[in-house]
Every structure is written in C-alpha cells, then in structure tokens.
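Section 5: illustrative case.
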C-alpha cells in the first residue's frame, strides 16, 4: 500500500519534533501535527517560562543582598505585567524556531489536532492522512483536583497567564511544580501557603534533599502545611478558603492545584487503532517506544515513565535512528540527572541513600555550609552536598545537591557517575577554588554508613 507519509508524528513537543527532524534528515517522508502550541509543555507552559519566572523572583533577592557588598540599591514593587509580556515574547520566539526547524528539515507541518481512524489512518484537522508508521508524542496535562470546590482552583497551565500576581496564594502539592512556584510567588512578594499530604516535599528524592528543601522554603517565608490533604475549597466574595483534613483552614486569594500530571491521550481514539493503555491513559510501550501495534510508537510523557524533556528528546532521536538510520544512538536512561528549580535549586543524579542501601552497605559523605556570597549578604541560606558510595566497589552511585548553581554543577557530575567514577577518582581531582563545586572533590570524612549489612 502507498502511504502519504513514511512517518507521522502526533504532537509537536520536544520529543516529537526531534523524532520528526532526525527521521526527515535520514530520508523519510515525515508529517507532524500540533493542535495547541509548538514546543509542547516545556517551551510554553513548563520548564522554560517557569525558569524565567524563578529568575525574576531571584532578582529581588539579589537586590536585597547587594547592600552587603556595598551597593546602595533597593527593590521596588515587582511589575508582574512586564514579566508576563517579556515571557510571552520569548515563548513566541521559541515557537517560531520550532516550526522553522521542522520546515527546514522538509517536514510537513499541520497546525491541527490528529486522531486515529485506524492503525494506519489519521484524521488531521478534517483531512485524512495515511502513514506507514505513527509516533504518539502528545505529552501530558495538569491533573485537575476532584474534591468539592475544585472549580475554584487553577492548574499550572493557568499560572503562566495570570493577569496579576495574587497577594495570597495557596499551592496544593509537594512535587516539582508546587515547590518551584512557591519560590516564584514568595520571591515576588506574595504570601504563600504550601499544602502537601507527605511529611516532606518531593517524594522519591533523597531524604537529606527533602529535609533541606523544607527548611529552605520555611526560611523563604513559605508557610508549610505538611502531612495533611485538602478536603474542599470554598469561595465567598472572592476569598477562597482551603479546608484541610486536619481541621485547619487557609484563607487566600488564589488556589493553585499542582497535584500531578496525566498523559494526554483523550480524544486520540487509540481504541480505533487498537493501542493499549493503562487505566490512566498512559500508553504501554516496550523497547524504543513500540506499542502493542508494531508500527505505532509512543515517546515522552505520554508513556508516563521518566517524564523529563531531555528524555523525550533522547527517545525521539533514538527511535528515528532505529527506524531510518544505522541503529539507535545509545542513551543511558538509568542514571539521568534532574533538577528542581526551587529557591534555592536542587539537583540529583543516580541513587538516593535509601535506594542504594537496599543493595548493601554504602558510604555517605555530606557537607553543609553557607555559600560564600551569603557570608557578606547575611541571607540565611545553606548549601548541602551529598555523595552516595557503594562500599564494595567504591563507585559513586549517587550525588545530590541543594544550593545555588546545583543544576549547573550536577550536569558535570552526571558524566562522571555515568562513566562509573569511584570515590578515589573524585578525591584525586583538583578542585576549582573558590567555588561551591570543589566541595564534591574535597569531602574526605565519611558521614555515616547505610545499608542492610552496615548494622550487622
């Protein structure tokens, strides 16, 4: 059968665009459909605009800190409208870059919603299109709350287009989005309440990072309500009241539900193509993202495995090379570094202490200190660094950091850990002085031993 395209990608986010470009560069006839905005969540309502907003919040801190260095400056009230306009301008620029990258690669671009008619046929904005292979890269969407009064809440997509900054905001959730926006709004002058069911934010991260972040949020003026969920939200005269399971209430101007994300598969008619999913809509995949239908693939957040933009890009790149090149590029997705752009930020790569200890004894090295900048600024901010070392092999199997520049530092450490560096390799590396990063190669004294065999 003659198809309109060799490969058709549903979704113009980072993973889908990379897959389409690489496949087209390898000679495939490729089409891509995107119904909402090119670049997907990350570029439009995710990591890019969110980091710009974090930077905006930190400028207020920098201005206040300048007095300790002899500068006679003072922060004025923040202009929220100016920030949003500047952010929107940058996002528009990035949108156009994505479409230019695709058209420049010879990809057919469709500004339309695509859904399956059958396993080889799509309805793309009313046009019938056939493809030999199809890639689903539709990403995720914010999970809406289901408690009474959920209609009084916003979700993360809404936060980037608020007409004005709320004087009071309640953030519901303890994950990436909640703690990052807590830093944004607190830094810009809002009264922030953070509600999370867990006793500490960032479930799944190393416990020392979680503890340190909770302390940092508190120091930054974020009111923490940990260990209690939300039962309902009510509104009276524009004032929202958040009712907690422990019986307390919070009065606020805006309630921001950051309770997770859900794979965006609604409306794709996956059943028409026979594609299998989990009950929550996540597409079930095997090697290289193949679904139960051999010529249909899924990559990125729509599979709900490792929901990070660089992972989606790696998956898209590998798939295109496997299908149309000389075999897939090998990416190591077992030890992927990640960062949370809280204030201060944190970053991590490899195993947490608890994960590593399940496999046997591990040596733990921890350093806590006041960053050099704040010895003069007087700001109450600490940096924490941690190495997790397998005792038997002395390989560094985990690195964790809370503090300024943590994401930048962790990118380099991820190379070392993915290459199998040992503690001795770290110890014989000469540090760059004076930097915070040098602490990772000067930690000589073991803090403790963890693991099932350590107590024997």
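Designed sequence:
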């Amino acid at each position: 059968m003659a198809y309109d395209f060799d490969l058709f990608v549903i979704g113009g986010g980072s993973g889908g665009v990379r897959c389409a470009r690489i496949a087209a560069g390898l000679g495939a006839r490729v089409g891509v459909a995107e119904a909402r905005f090119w670049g997907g969540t990350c570029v439009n309502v995710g990591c890019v605009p969110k980091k710009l907003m974090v930077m905006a919040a930190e400028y207020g801190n920098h201005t206040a800190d300048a007095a300790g260095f002899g500068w006679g400056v003072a922060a004025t009230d923040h202009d929220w409208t100016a920030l949003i306009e500047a952010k929107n301008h940058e996002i528009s620029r990035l949108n156009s870059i994505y479409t230019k990258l695709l058209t420049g690669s010879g990809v057919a671009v469709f500004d339309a919603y695509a859904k399956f008619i059958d396993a080889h046929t799509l309805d793309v904005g009313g046009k019938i299109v056939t493809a030999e292979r199809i890639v689903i890269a539709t990403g995720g969407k914010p999970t809406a709350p289901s408690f009474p009064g959920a209609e009084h809440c916003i979700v993360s997509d809404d936060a980037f287009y608020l007409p004005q900054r709320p004087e009071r905001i309640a953030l519901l959730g303890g994950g990436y989005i909640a703690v990052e926006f807590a830093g944004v709004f607190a830094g810009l002058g809002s009264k922030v309440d953070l509600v999370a069911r867990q006793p500490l934010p960032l479930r799944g991260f190393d416990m020392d990072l979680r503890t340190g972040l909770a302390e940092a949020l508190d120091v930054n003026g974020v009111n923490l309500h940990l260990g209690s969920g939300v039962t309902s939200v009510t509104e009276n005269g524009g004032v929202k009241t958040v009712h907690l399971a422990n019986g307390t209430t919070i009065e606020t101007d805006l309630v921001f539900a950051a309770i997770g994300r859900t794979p965006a598969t609604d409306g794709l008619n996956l059943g028409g193509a026979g594609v299998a999913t989990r009950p929550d809509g996540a597409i079930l995949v095997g090697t290289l993202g193949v679904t139960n239908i051999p010529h249909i693939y899924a990559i990125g957040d729509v599979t709900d495995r490792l929901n990070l933009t660089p992972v989606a890009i790696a998956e898209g790149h590998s798939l295109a090379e496997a299908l149309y090149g000389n075999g897939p590029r090998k990416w190591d997705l077992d030890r992927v570094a990640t960062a949370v752009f809280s204030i201060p930020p944190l970053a991590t790569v490899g195993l947490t202490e608890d994960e590593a200890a399940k496999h046997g004894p591990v040596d733990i090295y921890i350093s806590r200190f006041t960053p050099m900048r704040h010895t003069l600024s007087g700001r109450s901010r600490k940096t924490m660094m941690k190495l997790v070392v397998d005792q038997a092999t002395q390989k560094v199997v985990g690195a964790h950091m809370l503090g300024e520049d943590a994401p930048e530092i962790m990118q380099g450490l991820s190379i070392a850990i993915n290459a199998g560096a040992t503690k001795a390799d770290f110890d014989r590396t000469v540090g760059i002085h004076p930097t915070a990063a040098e602490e990772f190669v000067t930690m000589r004294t073991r803090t403790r031993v963890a693991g099932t065999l350590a107590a024997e």
